[in-house]
Write a structure and sequence with these properties.
The chain folds into 3 domains: 7-130, Rossmann fold; 160-232, 2-Layer Sandwich (Dna Ligase, domain 1); 236-372, D-amino Acid Aminotransferase, Chain A, domain 1 (2-Layer Sandwich), CATH 3.30.470.20. 35% of the residues lie in helices and 22% in strands. It is built from 13 helices and 14 strands. The strands form 3 sheets. Strands 4-3-2-1-5 form a 5-stranded mixed beta sheet. The longest helix has 20 residues, at 354-373.
Length: 392
């Protein structure tokens, strides 16, 4: 469906998450790229303590046509707003404008309280179109344990993993905890990766070797969530694919991450920028096509919509053990939009500019909203029939 002539684009950023700062950077670049001839942009920040505020500095620069002067990281200060009023009242953030103006919400909220279905539920209740996955897809994809459970059920290959709940260790003595860690090491290998179940950007992720290090890594993960994932360490190339679409997703070219650190951690992603990206990845064309199909299958299995980035491993083999091939690592339903983020770079390499990407995401949001708004809300009662088989 074509885009309306004018769209009120509410950009949500910040959030009550350890990924708050990354969100502020992503949002700055989204606001720069949004076409001012098409969008009335309303930048709304969610502070770390959960308050909604009108991002005055960003709004002022946008209003004066000075998007290029936006800071690299948007400020989360300004007059406080009521969430529902912000979403539904076109007068918030500027002139009232045409009442027929379409509002679309673009949430650039990475991590919990934004990427996990919470904000998506609010937007559903407000009856507004929004970019990205719905409540279920967001929640399932965000929770690594649920996502891995679904992928196992769908027969999609992934590294071996186990889930650990904080209650298994909170009141346990060292001997009990150590026994659990030893069992996990025995099942997954001496070196493992430990991750909070509901977190992204490699926050709280630790590479651990041995039972004692595993216990310490679990303690780190439990600072961010009550559930942790312990995964086998895989000797593999790290590949990423960007996805666009709703019912019929399409995949970008395949990119490769070459970490500078021991693994692709937070500093490697955002601080020192030492990791290398190769787009497109040096792959056999048939293998690249297989990886793209697997990414699309993963997207559909996890009920993702609109956009996502799918991360996979290509396991390195040896002459004695050829490896398992392509293994799905995880999916990210609100991928980063910073200048060094893979999602926009993958689409640029695939022939879609940053501005065109925003247009496509808004179009997908409107298409899904129109389709879902057409679902029946009444009970359709079938007319009674009579026949020889009817009971009297």
């Amino acid at each position: 469906m074509p885009l309306p002539d004018r769209v009120r684009l509410v950009v949500l950023f910040g959030g009550r998450s350890a990924e708050h700062d990354i969100s502020r950077i992503s949002a700055s670049h989204v606001l720069r790229a949004a076409d001012p001839a098409r969008y009335d942009v309303v930048p709304v920040a969610i502070t770390k303590d959960g308050r909604w505020v009108f991002a005055e500095q960003a709004a002022d620069l946008i209003g004066r046509g000075l998007q290029s002067e936006l800071p690299a990281s948007l400020a989360t200060d300004g007059p406080e707003l009521d969430p529902m009023t912000t979403l539904t009242d076109r007068s918030v953030g500027g002139p009232a404008g045409d009442p027929a103006t379409t509002t679309v919400v673009l949430a650039i909220l990475h991590g919990p309280n934004g990427e996990d279905g919470t904000v998506q539920g609010l937007l559903e209740m407000a009856g507004l179109p929004y970019v990205g996955s719905g409540v279920l897809g967001s929640a399932v994809a965000m929770d690594k344990v649920m996502a891995k459970t679904v992928l196992d059920a769908e027969g999609i290959a992934q590294p071996a993993w186990r889930a650990v709940r904080v209650g298994q260790l909170r009141d346990a003595g060292h001997a009990t905890g150590f026994a659990l860690a030893e069992r996990l090491i025995g099942e997954l290998g001496d070196t493992v990766f430990v991750k909070p179940a509901n977190m992204g950007s490699s926050i709280g992720v630790t590479r651990a070797t041995g039972a004692e290090a595993l216990l310490a890594a679990l303690d780190t993960a439990f600072q961010y969530d009550d559930l942790a994932v312990v995964e086998e360490a895989v000797d593999a190339r790290e590949l990423e694919i960007a996805i666009l679409g709703n019912e019929v997703p399409r995949a970008s070219v395949v990119g490769e991450i070459i970490p500078a650190a021991e693994f692709y951690d937070y500093e490697d992603k955002y601080s020192d920028g030492a990791a290398q990206t190769v787009i497109p990845a040096d792959l056999d064309p048939d293998l690249a096509a297989e990886i793209r199909r697997l990414a699309e299958r993963t997207f559909l299995a996890l009920r993702a919509e609109g956009m996502a980035r799918v991360d996979v491993f290509l396991e390195r083999g040896t002459p004695d053990s050829p490896g398992r091939g392509v293994l799905v690592n995880e999916i990210n339903t609100i991928p980063g939009f910073t200048p060094i983020s893979m999602y926009p770079m993958l689409w640029q390499e695939s022939g879609m500019s940053y501005t065109e990407l925003i247009d496509e995401l808004v179009t997908l949001a409107l298409e899904r909203h129109r389709r879902r708004s057409g679902h029946r809300t009444d009970v359709q009662v079938r007319a009674a029939t009579t026949g020889a088989g009817d009971r009297s």
